[in-house]
Design goal:
With 102 residues, the chain is mostly helical. The protein has one domain. It contains four helices and no strands. Helix 1 runs antiparallel to helix 2 and helix 2 runs antiparallel to helix 3. The chain starts with a helix and ends with a helix.
């Protein structure tokens, strides 16, 4: 049946591959919050499983996958905050326009 941490790793793999599959079939955009959340959650589940069955190269990949996904989540949230500020008639955060062009 396997150890519980192996099942966490399998769930993480399913989330990451599911997000990528939805992206490739154009059912999800890389700008969607759910895409970044699925990737971050999947990577974090894999990291937890790797803490019990260590593999350095996999841990490094999943660590970076988590960080990159977190950046996507933060950008999505900042974009929402800027959109809400603009729709309410307030100025966007300082530097928000510069960030969007990169």
């Amino acid at each position: 049946m396997g150890m519980w941490y192996q099942w966490l790793g399998i769930a993480g793999m399913i989330l990451i591959l599911g997000a990528y599959s939805l992206l490739q079939t154009e059912r999800l955009s890389s700008r969607d919050l759910s895409y970044s959340v699925m990737n971050a959650a999947g990577a974090l589940l894999l990291v937890v499983s790797l803490l019990f069955d260590f593999n350095l190269s996999a841990l490094i990949v999943e660590g970076f996958w988590s960080i990159i996904s977190a950046v996507g989540i933060i950008r999505h949230i900042r974009g929402r905050l800027d959109t809400n500020a603009t729709s309410q008639g307030t100025a966007p955060r300082a530097g928000a326009e510069a960030t969007r062009h990169h």
